[in-house]
Fold these 3 entries.
Entry 1:
Amino acid sequence: MGCGTSKVLPEPSENCYVSFVKSVVNYSHRGKSFEDEPQKCKGKQKDIWNIGVALLQPHVQQPTVKDVQHGDSKVARYRAKFDPRVTARYDIKALIGRGSYSRVVRVEHRATRQPFAIKMMEVEAEEGREVCESELGVLRRVSHPNVVQLVEVFQSPRRIYMVLELATGGELFDRVIAKGQFTERDAARALQMALNGVAYLHSLGITHRDLKPENLLYYHPGSDSRLLVTDFGLASFGNKYPRGREGGGEHGERGGSGAGGFGDGRFPRDSGSGGDLTGEVGRGNGGDKEDNSVSQCDVNRDLGGGGRRDWSMMTTCGTSEYMAPEVISRIPYTCQVDMWALGVISYILLSGSMPFEDDSRPRLYRAILRGRYSFHGEPWPSVSNQAKDFIERLLVVDPSSRLTATHALHHPWLVTMVASFSSMTNLHRSISQNLRRRASRSSASSSCCPSSTGCKSSRSRNQGTTHSEAPLLASTAH
Ligand SMILES: Nc1ncnc2c1ncn2[C@@H]1O[C@H](COP(=O)(O)OP(=O)(O)OP(=O)(O)O)[C@@H](O)[C@H]1O
């Protein structure tokens, strides 16, 4: 699901991947017994032990010929690509999907029979390494019900295997289409979960930079499922954090006082115990930036224009239809770019159509820069003014006037809709019609679409990528 065809990757950074690997390997040389330690560690720290264990465990259990012959041939093919240390612990069950640098498979833990997803990333090529480093850099630090959870990591010279919690509920829009009924309340509930995850990330100084419907997955198929923010391949720590400018994010979600800064998710904070372990992980590629894990956007606001200049990012990346004006303009930006993307997602969620859409990328970028979109056509006449107000406050060209994640969570539309039990207009028919119409149009034109039908595979490795420093509009002009 979603529009993946015009993703723009960031410029490579310097050796971040190496610094992550070093941080884990260094730890492994301290002469401690990894096997003895996990029960002493709680929550996130236990996961970190797992990372160490996975890197160190030497036992090798090759998949047997019988294994391969008896398995489904496709699964067997993928299983053969897996490091024996991984297959020793996890039974590869099925291929879920492929990304530009990754394959995701459903697995079962051999001992506990628990299902997980493993994202296998190719790290030989520099771009794959960068994306992997970015993803791991975030996943190692986060723990929140609305952010996909990393369980452990295996490393081989060519590949990284990330064991993740398995999301079986499908992408955001798959569910919209599958349901016979979809109301503003449903949209608000989904957006509230996405916003909770994003507010948490922002409180840690993490900007996702590629929020879109296909990166929002339901944990399970039930109607009460959590929604998970996934795919941190383009995420950033807002890499110009000055030290000692902690502003106390609005969520009180920061981690302990150590460098770990995990915030309060499902796991207890571990700031006190296991000090050097936390420190070691904190010194990964996050480095000293982690000390300032505050809500970057709120601090930017407090600091005014000068602060914004110091604290923002420059790299152009993301998926065109969801890119904020400041990203397209290549001016320094902040985590508010995620809020723009959430505005785009909100618009699609309530209508099945895109606010900004054009086959010509320069025209698309111009429309975004002007913030020009409309609420014309079905089902907009049936959508409440408060819902439109919510979108209007997110799709604001000036990022400092755009709602922050925390403010969005307090918007009256979201608050009243989430709490509401009254029956509401069913928007499903118009939304799914719009999604389907767009899907068939885009499969004809090989363009992107916000529907599950025919879009996912159209996202190709190099399509729409740029490493240029020139303004996007100039570099793509006619
Ligand atoms: N934890 C997970 N549980 C279930 N499915 C997942 C999980 N993580 C990723 N997927 C699915 O696996 C597929 C590949 O995902 P991946 O993140 O590797 O690539 P992508 O985001 O689709 O593409 P790209 O890497 O180009 O951004 C997608 O369909 C995604 O929804």
Note: Strands lie at 7-8, 90-98, 102-109, 115-122, 150-155, 159-165, 216-218, 227-229, 318-319.
Entry 2:
Amino acid sequence: MEAEETRARETLLEVSNLDAGYGDLQILTDLEMTVGRGEYVTIVGPNGAGKSTAMKSVFGLTSHMGGTVTFDGTDITQMVPEEIIHHGLGYVPQNDNVFSSLTVRENLEMGAYILDEVPEDALQAVFDRFPILERRQEQKAGTMSGGQQQMLAMGRALMLEPKLLLLDEPSAGLAPDLVADMFDRIDDINDAGTAILMVEQNAKEALRRCDRGYVLVNGKNGYVGSGRDLLDDEEVRQRFLGG
Ligand SMILES: Nc1ncnc2c1ncn2[C@@H]1O[C@H](COP(=O)(O)OP(=O)(O)OP(=O)(O)O)[C@@H](O)[C@H]1O
């Protein structure tokens, strides 16, 4: 039933035959990936498999060597991030994802720098989603905890109300008791209609939460299926999920 629902979704992101890397160094080969409208998709795989590179390639941050990336009907393959955000894609990198010397509010306003005015409704929606950011809006981002900075980075990406949010290891560096909270917040963002494409080291938890998952191996597609199917696949469990 779930698989049928997943198939029935309209495609939002389509990565087709993508070859990409850094300079002349090719990392991804023939990558195929889709995200449906409102879908929650996770990318897992061993260290160095190319998970972050796949995400960066969707957002125009790598050297393109072949294939296409289509988003909501538009070919974004050759676009730079500044153009891509106009089409409804938001990206939260793993590291250096806030401006430390700016306040929380300034960071959020930066998220909407492409607009002439700060979108007050979107700002209030971010504050409603992450009340700590409203309470600490005048605090310098660099003085916040890791978990709060991660919320701020997500909040900043949400300022343009993206159709698809790319999250690179959102639970990285968080104390164990904050990890479940972070996943709950991602569920909430998805429940509100935003599609998610997420890279996670915390693979089992990510697969439990998502609609579909991709296992990348050596820059190529390994396995794909519903989160449940991947968790139940003996070979995937043994090779990639620690048994
Ligand atoms: N900026 C870069 N320049 C050159 N090579 C890079 C760059 N970033 C990553 N790589 C290389 O690309 C390969 C894939 O890295 P990537 O970060 O995409 O893997 P990953 O699956 O996300 O791994 P991890 O789980 O360790 O973050 C690795 O061999 C890495 O050394």
Note: Residues 38 and 191 are 8 Å apart (CA to CA).
Entry 3:
Amino acid sequence: MQSSTIPTLPTSLFPQKILLFSSKTQSFPSKSSLLAQSCHLFRPKMASLSGFIVRSQTGTSSSGEKGFSTLSEYMGKGGIDVGDELVVLYDHIQYACKRIAALVASPFNSSLSKQSNFAGGDSGSGRDAPKPLDIVSNEIILSSLKNSGKVAVMASEEDDAPVWINDDGPFVVVTDPLDGSRNIDASIPTGTIFGIYRRLVELDHLPQEEKATLNSLQSGAKLVAAGYVLYSSATILCTSFGSGTHAFTLDHSTGDFIQTHIDIKIPPRGQIYSVNDARYFDWPEGLRQYIDTVRQGKGRYPKKYSARYICSLVADFHRTLLYGGVAMNPRDHLRLVYEANPLSFLVEQAGGRGSDGKSRILSMQPVKLHQRLPLFLGSLEDIKELESYGDVQQKVNPGYEV
Ligand SMILES: O=P(O)(O)OC[C@H]1O[C@](O)(COP(=O)(O)O)[C@@H](O)[C@@H]1O
């Protein structure tokens, strides 16, 4: 096994904070449980994982059941044991996402992102001009994947074609490095999305470009793992290895992702729809009828629905996963390979459904890396009800300025 080359994180990235939640709670605890847990807060625990030393200030469960503090511990031999190679890869993904989290929270990110408005123009084209945040995030992820030694190819929203990294890498990574970055100047939440496949060894004999593309176009049904990182008031890494969906919150005092949401179950029915409904007059009749119906509380669930739309996919998805309902973009806008597939994997593992309005996302065979499609993610009963309206995919896509 190749040894890891992750550098030590500068401590200044993670200023000391008092940790107020337990690694074993699914939601934030009551005052009394906080008191009970406080005896664990200052009992440092060291664990050695795949050559990494992690320090956690949280205690393990007092209920006697087996507990895991960090994502690396959860994945490792004492946890669900996903295998050393995937543990190493995740350590590098965590490191990359911590760097991106620091970047999006930095006072300097605004000047970086502004350069994207001038892409190709004079202001942004100088050799030393700052790069847009999504490009910087892409470079951060690529460098971490290279350092891991575990990745054959990375396919990213930011690159026209997949990047071949390492002939022996066991994994293929698809990613949208920083989704929602158009809102970054307003400090709106953003996110990284990723999916992980096994390298198709039967394609090893093909020319590099060809095998890079074919490895990246695997169907979502073959995902080994997927996840997203939400950069918001908390930095949350939510992931699945095919046995449930779990979320880990960045503890700024230690730099560890601590288990905070175990085995998330999306409610079978929610009361929230999430869509850019300024597009109402471009929608097909079926979608208008569906939204009109649930707004009035006249659907299969006789409650009036509420609307929530951040316009940042990871944030809208994260809320939907926790509260239920449906998050959608009915036009051909979001991407199958590195957005729809990983998020559908996560929502299915939580008991929900990912659909293009007609078919299950994970059953589709991608034909192009940047293939776009209508996307509906959410509670099982809500998505089924929406699909029953038949005509929910927006065909007109005139292009919108904001
Ligand atoms: O403009 P719409 O149709 O509301 O789309 C918004 C969606 O587009 C995204 O901004 C992604 O689009 P980009 O990749 O072009 O930035 C998502 O974060 C968001 O959910």
Note: The first helix runs from residue 31 to 41.
